[in-house]
Amino acid sequence: MTMKYTMLLLFLGMITSAFSQGVRQKVDSIAKRYDAIGVAYVVVKDGQIFHSDAVGYKDWDQKIALSASTDLFRIASISKSFTATALMQLVEANKLSLDADFGDMIGFRVRNPYFPDKVITLRMLLSHTSSISDKNGYFNLDAINPNKNPEWERGYNNYEPGSQYEYCNLNFNMAGAALERAVGVRFDIYIKQKILAPLGLKGGYCVDSLDKGAFAKIYEYDGVKRQFEAQPAAYAPRSEEIRNYKLGYTTPVFSPTGGMKISTEDLARYMIMHMNYGESAGVRILQQSSARTMQTPVNKWAGYGLALRENKNLISGKTMVGHTGSAYGLYSTMFFQPEERFGIVAITNGCKQTFEDDKPELLEEVVDCLYKHFILFAK
């Protein structure tokens, strides 16, 4: 290597570092306007992680800096896509069908009392078109089980299954239980075996099996008290529930609908797999057809496929695919553009902000900033 070439590399490195530092300052400025505890973010470009950083704190009380690479977040509803991915693997293996009677998969009758002859399918659950609602709650399958709950009928909306869209967390806790019944393996273990381990990702649904020191502390803002309060329930241990676990029924203990704990960088690596239609770093998790099915809206009005949805407003002129999450004060977003092979993951572990249609404006501004600096202006 010549001296000139070495000097050129050093010069380019200095420019890149200065540019990244400038972006970091802009993200930090956005975070401070929303009084965010911390924001971790990753930019994927040309199908690879291009930039990763974080501002603020993993632990506000101890003033521990946040890391995008090592700190684990409970990512909330982005977790649904992991559940759907595992189920699509079973559909590929002909162990389940997207269009068979879901009652046969879950072990009790699943029929809307207003439309008792209309079959409710796995496809409907994964696309939120099942007509099932969260009116009876969603952390226990008794909510919808006619053998356990005399008020099970309240758990359905008064429209024909498959005809309309309504977001429903119970759909995915039921789907996770059906997965367990199909494979005879506990939900969290199966996800680790079939998705996380093959992709080399750290994380999981079971709090007790993870490094508790890696969790990014989550804070919720109390508008009345005008202060942030830590939310230890986000990472509450499940030891007692696991000891009394009933495979295929008490699955909501792990929250297939929102319980994945993973770092921002590893979530980006998972996103790359979906961006590549089922493959990442030479490892294929899904067939291309299955990945495309997940990304194709079932309900055109909602733009929602199978745990992945279209978003045409996040970045002007772009149809993005992905999901958001919110729980305990945390907000997460994961969206990608499969044709142009870029994507952005951003997560905050607490902030004060306003909302429009349940969309976190803080993360939208961060995504816009990252897109303009690393994708749009870098072309």
From TrEMBL:
<dbReference type="InterPro" id="IPR050491">
    <property type="entry name" value="AmpC-like"/>
</dbReference>
<dbReference type="InterPro" id="IPR012338">
    <property type="entry name" value="Beta-lactam/transpept-like"/>
</dbReference>
<feature type="domain" description="Beta-lactamase-related">
    <location>
        <begin position="24"/>
        <end position="357"/>
    </location>
</feature>
<feature type="signal peptide">
    <location>
        <begin position="1"/>
        <end position="20"/>
    </location>
</feature>
<dbReference type="Pfam" id="PF00144">
    <property type="entry name" value="Beta-lactamase"/>
</dbReference>
<dbReference type="InterPro" id="IPR001466">
    <property type="entry name" value="Beta-lactam-related"/>
</dbReference>
<keyword id="KW-0732">Signal</keyword>
<protein>
    <submittedName>
        <fullName>Beta-lactamase family protein</fullName>
    </submittedName>
</protein>
